[in-house]
Design a protein that fits this description.
134 residues; mainly alpha; 61% helix
């Protein structure tokens, strides 16, 4: 594992765990639901020769968590929220993250007090799956 991968996993796990309050909101386990979506999307992407071409990639679960916290951080920082037609072009987990931020922005911001939002928003997926110097 590269230093970037190691530090990113630590950052992501810290941020992800503080979002646990999103489970049991309105009788829906939102964090669990979006995690299942993101891991499904990542596993679909990894079909075929992925492992052959990306031998030093982080596991799908780590990448799924990184996508969730990255997207939430981006939306919290003002990234354009998706509109209806985006449903045809975006991963469902990205839309779900936008919905979570739209509905629970204040609570997420409180939970993420002390988190480095710019660092979360700038997570580099390529460095997680194809590190330059493993």
């Amino acid at each position: 594992m590269t230093p970037y991968q190691r530090s990113t996993v630590k950052l992501v796990n810290s941020a992800f765990s503080t979002l646990d309050f999103l489970n049991n909101k309105s009788w829906v386990n939102h964090l669990e639901k979006v995690f299942k979506m993101a891991i499904f999307e990542e596993k679909q992407y990894r079909s075929g020769d992925f492992a052959k071409h990306h031998p030093n990639a982080l596991c799908a679960a780590d990448c799924a968590r990184s996508f969730i916290v990255k997207r939430v951080a981006e939306y919290l920082q003002g990234a354009t929220m998706p509109s209806g037609k985006d449903f045809l072009h975006m991963q469902p987990s990205a839309l779900y993250c936008a919905g979570l931020v739209d509905e629970y922005r204040t609570e997420i911001m409180e939970a993420w007090t002390g988190q480095d939002l710019p660092a979360l928003a700038s997570i580099d997926y390529v460095q997680l799956v194809s590190p330059a110097n493993p």
